[in-house]
Design a protein that fits this description.
By secondary structure, the chain is α/β, with parallel strands linked by helices. The protein has helices at 3-20, 75-83, 106-112, 129-137, 143-148, 153-165, 181-194, 211-224, 237-244, 264-269, 271-278; strands at 35-46, 49-60, 64-68, 90-95, 99-100, 114-117, 199-203, 229-233, 250-254, 257-262. It binds adenosine-5'-diphosphate (ADP) and magnesium ion (MG).
Length: 280
């Protein structure tokens, strides 16, 4: 995003505030410029060690972007900066053209429309698949209150829709603890989808999945592309190949910055990338 785009976003925000009298908190992200996420020169130091070193990245609205790179490259730290878990020492992180994520707390960032999937699935094991989705839909209520609160027709159809998407329609009444590892991962993605995030961050989503589960996960992400922007960190090259369909950009991180960006075939042929990552 160029400075004039950010200026346009700021101008729009000011106009909106004059019109509605509302302030920044609760402001809707503006995606009219086609940018979902804009990261500029973020640096994160841990005791003098730079986990991120002037990292810059732009994700377009509806884009599915795969991020690869060796262990310790800074992939998870990057997600921590976007979701507010870690504050960079310097740099910018914007959601849409108007929301400065560095000024929001973790819950505010989630509320604004950024969903994050951690490596380990965290579902309510003792509840059914359906109840897990129901809870995610009413995350602002306590567990008991949420389960006693009646679902509206629209909420019910949204749950049905997500059950289909995550291939768990036939398991809706099953206790989540009894699902396979892959199914739990899908359920957690489904729980994220209940909040309808604009941007989804997925950190090694197919780690520990069977080949068949991995393939189905790729299909799921391809279905979500367009409606959501997705940032997928993954080591599984077959999975990345399936996601990028030979035409999408892949970003390679190394030592906290972008080492290369291009088609998977291009970065795989890049000598620097082979040396630090693929060749090992
Ligand atoms: N909280 C922390 N304190 C100190 N060092 C950290 C912390 N988090 C990450 N690091 C270091 O930052 C670097 C990047 O880590 P990480 O973002 O987890 O890499 P990746 O996800 O690409 O494997 C690593 O060298 C890691 O040891
Ligand atoms: Mg990581």
């Amino acid at each position: 995003m160029t400075p004039d785009l950010m200026e346009a976003g700021a101008k729009r925000l000011a106009e909106h505030q004059t019109k509605t009298g509302s302030v920044i908190a609760g402001e809707e992200a503006y995606f009219g410029q086609g940018v979902a996420l804009y990261v500029e020169d973020i640096t994160v130091s841990f005791d003098g060690f730079k986990a991120l070193n002037k990292l810059s990245l732009t994700i377009n609205v509806g884009e599915l972007r795969c991020i690869i790179g060796p262990n310790g490259a800074g992939k998870t730290t990057m997600m921590d900066c976007i979701t507010g878990k870690t504050r960079p020492d310097a740099g910018k992180v914007f959601f849409g053209s108007n929301i400065n994520l560095l000024r929001l707390t973790e819950p505010e960032i989630a509320q604004a429309g950024v969903g994050r999937k951690f490596q380990k699935p965290t579902v309510y094991e003792q509840l059914s698949v359906f109840e897990n989705l129901e809870l995610a839909l009413k995350a602002d209520r306590g567990v008991r209150a949420a389960l006693f609160h009646r679902l509206s027709g629209a909420q019910l159809s949204r749950i049905e829709e997500v059950l289909l998407l995550i291939h768990l329609k036939d398991e809706a009444q099953r206790t989540a603890g009894l699902l396979s590892h892959g199914q739990k991962q899908w359920l957690e993605i489904g729980m994220l989808l209940m909040q309808d995030p604009k941007l989804l961050l997925l950190d090694e989503p197919v780690a520990g999945m069977t080949d068949e589960e991995t393939e189905r996960t790729a299909e799921l992400f391809l279905t979500l592309e367009g409606k959501h922007s997705l940032v997928v960190v993954e080591h599984d090259m077959k999975f990345v190949d399936q996601l990028t369909e030979g035409r999408k950009t892949v970003t390679v991180l190394h030592e906290g910055s972008v080492l290369a960006e291009g088609l998977l075939s291009e970065v795989q042929a890049n000598e620097k990338v082979v040396e630090v990552y693929l060749g090992r």
